[in-house]
Amino acid sequence: MRIANWAYAAALMVTTSVFAGDKIDESREVSANGQISIESMRGEVEIVGWNESRMTVSGELDDKATGYTFESENGFTVFKVKMPKNMNSRGWNHSQGSKLKIKVPSGASVRFESVNGNVTASGISGGSDIHTVNGNVDAEQLAKRVKLETVNGNINGTKLDGKIKLATVNGKINDKASKGKVSYSTVNGEVNAHSAAERVYVENVNGSIELDLSATEELEISTVNGDVEASATLNDDAQISITTVSGSARLALAGNVGGSYRLSSHAGGRIKNGLSDDEVKKQKYGPGRSLKFKLSGGDAQVEMTSVSGSLTIERK
Amino acid sequence: MTTTPNVIQAEERFLDDDELKLIRQVKQGNRHAYQRLYQLHCGRVYGICYRLLGDKTSAEDVVQEVFISVWNKIASYREESKFSTWLHSVATNLAVSHYRKRNTWWARFRSTEEVSFDEPGSCDEHEEHGLDVKIRRLPDQARMVFVLFAVEGFRHEEIADKLGIAVGSSKAQYHRAKNLLKEWIENE
Amino acid sequence: MNDAQFDQALKMQIDTLPKELAPERDLWAGIDHAIERQQSSQRFNFTKLTAVAAGVMVIGLTSWLTFKNVDLPSVRTTGQNLQYVNWMTESFEQQKQTLLVKYEDTPAMTDNWQEQLKQLDDAAKAIKKALAQDPSNAQLIKMLQQTYQQQLDLINAVNQDPWQMI
């Protein structure tokens, strides 16, 4: 950080030095709907929204912490656990990290970053941007723009509402009772969602995908080897696209199912039609199969494609 | 420089021709030509950035951004105007933009580095021009305004526009800078 | 000294300020490196580039859902489509190599990413095989692009040094 004016820096940047494993119990008056940035490299953190215009941090700091910053000005608040500069990625140990409980005004928008450690967040309605590398993210009742990301770890969401993105690389995604627009992305991991979101996007490589959707306008699923079990109640003019390479996909529909359907597999995947009496056509010279039909009464567009995985379309 | 104006003009014209050749090569994607162009101009660009921003690390970053940006935009450089004029205006704008971004309260606290500032004596201070040392010590905005107005020759209206402040604020910051400089010079 | 005198003295001092200052280190290397990277990454932003070329909507790991029923323009011949797929694959391979070289020395955040890359690669092979039979299939082309984009995204996602990240 480069601040040219000594006095200004000194006044604002009060860094508190600590001894390792120090307890912390701090409180600041903050804006009711301002921005909050929290950084805690290691350890378990719980972030809870509450009705006060105050932010409190309590618990224990990381054993290796050299201090912390906790300042608020003009609607921006920062809490950061200061760590020695040359921490490397080897030799970390959960038990030495911070254990913090942080209360923030429920109207705030919160940004949280960590490297090793789990984080829980709830009751924040101004937006949440939560990142860790090794650790789980558990979230409840977050609203507006919600982005929960980890690399090695699971993501669990309950009652999220807004524009939601849950992403992990190795880990499962569980989402219950979400609303709005939601995107799930993992590489190795299952996706399990019960959602009222109108727009849903799912992507993974390995791991089963199970969806139960109650108000679908747009649904896009892309997997390589995962098996897909999706059941959706369709809104008007729903658009659905499911692609898989070797995983099987089963789509069960209710609601406004009128529209056009196109299912195709290219290397031997079987196709099963439980929605109409139309027959699956086999390629004359080749392993491909396809199924095309229309149901009256609507403008839905449903497309399912696989290479070798089997495809099933049926009623919910 | 003690040479006569005519010789200076002639030299500039000569340099301009050479430079034009370089620029044409740069437009074709020639990185070697661009390195030559960089060598010819980096001192001035660094001078602008360092004076405006007050610390060498930021200045170095911005210098690189300037030359990367100019490379990307070289197709839009028109040969009728002087290259250095265009280059210096890119430099000024990027330096101001860097200052504006870094000076949001948010940005300052998101930095992971310790509070630090170029300390007197940390970089060849004895070789640095006395006034430069004092300019660096000015509060950020006062310094920006002072350098833009008194060194780079912009008008307060232009400065206000660049920095996103009122014209009155620009004038006030300039006076503040002058008063501080006067105080420091008088107390030397 | 009074104000007028000071103003004059200040102006004199300003006039003697050196216009040029020398940076303490060589900045050219960084500039050159960035320019070079840009030249090679004009092949990257893979999805946008190939999507524009194909008239196909592509969904990547970080982009939002925009579903469109994709039909490749029918003016393309089978030969053109196959050619397009080959070009896209080549383009992706170059980009993948660039990224792998870039991250050669940084430790990855997961230990199974190479295996996952291979799975995506195998998937791409299977899709390409299907495409050979049905070259105008927009869904298959989209799937292929997606496996490519997922590979690039995965390499980027697991290879940033986490301790530098915050």
Number of continuous helical runs of chain B: 9
User: What is the terminal separation of chain C in angstroms?
Assistant: 51 Å
Helix content of chain B: over 70%
How many DSSP helices of chain C?
A: 7
For the secondary structure, the number of strands of chain B is 0
Overall, the morphology of chain B is elongated
> What is the chains' assembly state?
heterotrimer
Q: Strand tally of chain C, please?
A: 0
- Biggest contact: A-C, 48 and 37 residues
Q: Could you describe the largest sheet of chain C, including whether it forms a barrel? A: none
Helix % of chain C is: 55-70%
Distance between the termini of chain B: 30 Å
Amount of beta strand of chain C: under 5%
Largest sheet data of chain B: none
Q: Low-confidence stretches of chain C at least 5 residues in length (pLDDT < 50)? A: 42-75
Mean pLDDT of chain B: 81
What's the overall geometry of chain C? elongated
Record the SSE blueprint:
The complex is a heterotrimer of chains A (316), B (188) and C (166).
Chain A: H1 6-12, E1 15-17, E2 23-29, E3 35-39, E4 43-50, E5 54-60, E6 67-73, E7 76-82, E8 98-105, E9 109-113, E10 119-124, E11 128-131, E12 137-149, E13 155-158, E14 161-167, E15 173-185, E16 191-195, E17 199-203, E18 209-223, E19 228-244, E20 249-255, E21 259-265, E22 271-274, E23 281-282, E24 289-295, E25 300-306, E26 311-315
Parallel strand pairs in A: 3-7, 3-9, 4-8, 4-10, 9-11, 10-12, 11-12, 12-13, 12-14, 13-15, 14-15, 15-16, 15-17, 16-18, 17-18, 18-19, 19-20, 19-25, 20-26, 21-25, 22-26
Antiparallel strand pairs in A: 1-6, 2-5, 5-8, 6-7, 21-24, 23-24
Chain B: H1 5-27, H2 31-53, H3 56-73, H4 83-102, H5 105-110, H6 130-137, H7 140-151, H8 156-163, H9 167-186
Helix pairs in contact in B: 1-2, 2-3, 2-4, 3-4, 7-9, 8-9
Chain C: H1 3-15, H2 28-41, H3 46-54, H4 78-102, H5 113-133, H6 138-159, H7 162-165
Give a verbal description of the structure.
- The complex is a heterotrimer of chains A (316), B (188) and C (166).
- Chain A has one helix at residues 6-12, and strands at residues 15-17, 23-29, 35-39, 43-50, 54-60, 67-73, 76-82, 98-105, 109-113, 119-124, 128-131, 137-149, 155-158, 161-167, 173-185, 191-195, 199-203, 209-223, 228-244, 249-255, 259-265, 271-274, 281-282, 289-295, 300-306, 311-315.
- Chain A is an all-beta fold and 316 residues long.
- Chain A has a 26-stranded mixed β-sheet that branches.
- Chain A is elongated and about 75 Å long.
- Mean pLDDT of chain A is 89; it is low at 1-13.
- Chain B has helices at residues 5-27, 31-53, 56-73, 83-102, 105-110, 130-137, 140-151, 156-163, 167-186.
- Chain B is built from nine helices and no strands.
- The two termini of chain B are 30 Å apart.
- Chain B has 188 residues and is an all-alpha fold.
- Chain C has helices at 3-15, 28-41, 46-54, 78-102, 113-133, 138-159, 162-165.
- Chain C is elongated.
- The relative contact order of chain C is 0.13.
- Chain A binds chain C through residues 39, 41, 87-89, 113-115, 133-134, 151-152, 167, 169-170, 181, 183, 185, 187-188, 199-201, 203, 205-206, 218, 220, 222, 224-225, 239, 241, 243, 245-246, 264, 266-267, 283, 286-288, 301, 303, 305, 307-308, and chain C through 59, 61, 64-65, 67, 69, 107, 109-110, 112-113, 116, 119-120, 123, 126-127, 129-130, 133-134, 137, 139-140, 142-143, 146-147, 150, 154, 157-158, 161-163, 165-166.
